């Protein structure tokens, strides 16, 4: 049987129909929403042999002059960057707070969010190894906070300073949960990495309370801790009634852990340390971050009102 062949005219009509269908599909596809005055930059972590992105939000007045702005560095940027950008902008417009550049630090390219943050934000490999990986074929990774902190200070800082008008003498770290562990890692090793730390709901139960051990070790060797820290947590982040408190995720009382940790810092009477702790009523681990952020920014950024 001979193959059926389209006549040239019919072939032309068929091709036109295909093109029109493709154009119609393209025209009807919804476009993505983009935040104004934001940029995405790729950056290579040379020592870590990994690729990341930084998300940058510029103030409304950035194009108008030569001013250098305070800079906010926020981890867990995949969810936290738009929150920080929008709240900082709103505080400027409606509360007169000074403007700032916002820099979001993404998860590593090719890694799941849980996998990346567990590895990059935690200070130790936990003694309890009962963790499942969120990435097939790869074991869960932990304990690279020190190396990731060096990536921030050694590679991200110069990149931001070179490409944007920022005041690198006024750097703010913003973290929550595991992100706050990363902040504490830097606070207790290189406290001058940032000028102000906003730390929400730190996972102080992690690895049987390893951060308490690190706090004691720092206090043994140092007579000062030059830092400004705002701690915030939800009042509902408590241990359920009837359970015995311990340094474990299942039986942690995160509110009492944070009160204890802040009390230890204050007990050493470090001359240059300033801490504030705020417990937000009716908020839990999932809902408290915007409150911590707002009050943490107010504790550092100036307001004209």
Question: Topology, please?
Answer:
Elements: H1 8-28, E1 38-45, E2 50-57, E3 69-74, H2 77-95, E4 101-105, H3 113-121, H4 145-163, E5 166-176, H5 178-187, E6 196-200, H6 206-221, E7 227-234, H7 254-267, E8 273-280, H8 289-298
Helix pairs in contact: 2-8, 3-5
Pfam families: Esterase
InterPro entries: AB_hydrolase_fold (IPR029058), Esterase-like (IPR000801), Siderophore_Hydrolase_D (IPR052558)
Organism: Massilia psychrophila
How would you describe the overall organization of this protein?
With 305 residues, the chain is of the alpha/beta class. It has one domain (41-298): Rossmann fold (3-Layer(aba) Sandwich), CATH 3.40.50.1820. The protein has eight helices and eight strands. The protein has helices at residues 8-28, 77-95, 113-121, 145-163, 178-187, 206-221, 254-267, 289-298, and strands spanning 38-45, 50-57, 69-74, 101-105, 166-176, 196-200, 227-234, 273-280. It has an eight-stranded mixed sheet with strand order 1-2-4-3-5-6-7-8, with helices on both faces. Helix 5 (178-187) links the parallel strand 5 and strand 6 (196-200). The protein starts with 7 loop residues before the first helix and ends in a 7-residue tail after the last helix.
Largest sheet entry: 8 strands, mixed
Strand content: 15-25%
Fraction in helix: 25-40%
Continuous helix count: 8
Major beta sheet, strand line-up: 1-2-4-3-5-6-7-8
- Within CATH, the superfamily carries the name Alpha/Beta hydrolase fold, catalytic domain
Rounded to an integer, what's the Rg over CA atoms?
24 Å
Supply the CATH class.
Alpha Beta
Q: Quote the CATH topology.
A: Rossmann fold
- When the domains are counted, the total is 1
User: Using DSSP, what is the number of strands?
Assistant: 8
Calculate the terminal CA-CA distance, rounded to whole Å: 87 Å
Shape: globular
Strand and helix order: HEEEHEHHEHEHEHEH
Structural class: alpha/beta
Q: Which blocks of ≥5 consecutive residues have pLDDT under 50?
A: none
**In the CATH hierarchy, what is the architecture at level 2?**
3-Layer(aba) Sandwich
Mean pLDDT across every amino acid position: 92
Protein name: IroE protein
GO molecular function: hydrolase activity, acting on ester bonds
Family: Belongs to the esterase D family.
Pfam family, one: Esterase
């Amino acid at each position: 049987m001979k193959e059926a062949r389209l006549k040239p005219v019919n072939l032309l009509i068929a091709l036109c129909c295909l093109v029109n269908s493709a154009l119609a599909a393209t025209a009807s596809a919804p476009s993505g929403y983009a935040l104004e005055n934001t940029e995405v930059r790729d950056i290579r972590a040379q020592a870590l042999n990994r690729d990341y992105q930084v998300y940058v939000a510029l103030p409304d007045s950035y194009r108008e002059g030569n001013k250098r702005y305070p800079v906010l560095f926020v981890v867990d940027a995949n969810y936290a960057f738009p929150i920080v950008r929008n709240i900082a902008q709103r505080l400027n417009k409606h509360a007169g707070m000074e403007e700032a550049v916002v820099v979001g630090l993404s998860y590593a390219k090719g890694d799941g969010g849980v996998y990346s943050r567990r590895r990059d934000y935690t200070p130790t490999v936990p003694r309890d190894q009962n963790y499942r990986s969120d990435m097939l074929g790869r074991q869960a990774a932990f304990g690279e906070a020190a190396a990731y902190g060096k990536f921030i200070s050694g590679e991200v800082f110069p990149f931001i300073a070179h490409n944007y008008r920022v005041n690198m003498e006024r750097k703010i770290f913003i973290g929550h949960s595991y992100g706050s562990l990363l902040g504490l890692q830097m606070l207790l090793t290189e406290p001058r990495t940032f000028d102000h730390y906003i730390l929400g709901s730190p996972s102080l139960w992690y690895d049987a309370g390893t951060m308490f051990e690190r706090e004691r070790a720092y206090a043994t060797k140092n007579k000062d801790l030059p830092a400004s820290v705002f701690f915030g947590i939800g009042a509902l982040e408590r241990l359920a009634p009837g359970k015995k408190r311990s340094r474990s995720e299942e039986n942690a009382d995160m509110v009492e852990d944070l009160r204890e940790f802040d009390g230890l810092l204050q007990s050493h009477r470090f001359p240059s340390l300033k801490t504030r702790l705020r417990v937000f009523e009716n908020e839990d681990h999932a809902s408290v971050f915007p409150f911590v952020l707002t009050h943490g920014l107010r504790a550092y950024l100036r307001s004209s009102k």
